[in-house]
Specification:
292 residues, mainly alpha, Alpha-Beta Plaits, 2 domains, two-stranded antiparallel ribbon, 18 helices, globular
Length: 292
């Protein structure tokens, strides 16, 4: 039993995290939204505020709520949290602590006649998440305001499939009043979700890979996060087993802390020479400080 848990540790952590952060049973049962004090705090990963089971807030939702506010224009608290999570963990958050990441992982396990390594134009598609981050999360909430000086959470409203899956669909199913109000916007969001669900069966984590602005933010911290990969050059013979094991097709032997890496550790398990290590790099930071 212990050995089975060890082999599936990431999956166990993912399920445990979802249960911990979305454990408001009454909300799931009645279609209500939890409004307790824990909603003042953000989880590291995408976790829609309006999800019936959510006990915490989503960092992207909180960030946009501040940026599109008529009163506040800088999200010190939310950005501070994102920077803290990123500084310590990088995109480990995406691989281990994001509910929508878990959904994509499970979908990819569905048998399919051919699993895809990438899509045409992969190199350019991976920049989409940065465009979405700048445009939909920052610029539009800041500057696309109504006559009262208030904006809308553009990413949450027009794109976020996690919000549609975790909040939109459950709330519409459980509330007859909401069912009577749904229209074109809801259909648009469900279409995005449906496309990503189908694509996730064939391609590993398409949302994380191409669209997620939170992943884009955390990815920027990967090369400098306290917990990161290192490759022992004395042991590594550049055989490429790590890249073949990586579902994002990252040449780990060359780019162990790629901006796209979600820290799944498949590369470590695949390395025949045990040349890849994932640990806290305080020593490296101390040596860099001494050089400066």
């Amino acid at each position: 039993m212990v050995e089975k848990i060890r082999k599936n540790l990431r999956l166990v952590v993912q399920f445990a995290w979802v249960a911990l952060t979305n454990g408001y049973v009454k909300g799931w049962r009645t279609g209500g939204i939890f409004a307790g004090k824990t909603k003042m705090f953000c989880t590291p990963g995408l976790n829609c505020y309006s999800c019936p089971g959510a006990l915490f807030s989503c960092p992207l939702g909180a960030l946009q709520a501040t940026l599109n506010s008529a009163e506040y224009k800088f999200a010190f608290y939310t950005l501070g949290l994102i920077m803290a999570f990123g500084t310590v963990l990088g995109r480990f958050v995406c691989g281990w602590l994001c509910p929508f990441g878990l959904v994509q992982d499970l979908l990819y396990k569905i048998p399919f006649f051919k699993k895809l390594k990438s899509l045409p134009g992969e190199k350019y598609l991976r920049y989409l998440k940065y465009v979405i981050l700048v445009l939909f999360v920052i610029l539009l909430p800041l500057f696309a305001l109504d006559t009262f000086g208030v904006g809308i959470p553009w990413f949450c409203k027009w794109i976020c499939p996690a919000g549609t899956l975790e909040a939109g669909v459950p709330l519409v199913i459980s509330n007859s009043g909401l069912r009577a109000l749904v229209g074109g916007l809801y259909a648009h969001k469900v279409a995005i979700l449906t496309l990503l669900v189908l694509l996730s069966i064939a391609l590993y984590r398409p949302f994380c890979r191409y669209l997620c602005p939170l992943g884009a933010l955390y990815g920027l911290f990967n090369p400098v996060a306290l917990t990161r990969f290192s490759v022992d050059s004395d042991k590594c013979d550049r055989c490429g087993e790590c890249q073949r094991a990586c579902k994002f097709d990252i040449p780990v032997y060359d780019k162990p802390n790629s901006l796209d890496c979600i820290r799944c550790t498949d590369c470590m398990k695949a390395c025949p020479n045990r040349a890849i290590d994932y640990s806290v790099k305080l020593k490296d930071l101390h040596e860099e400080e001494k050089k400066v």
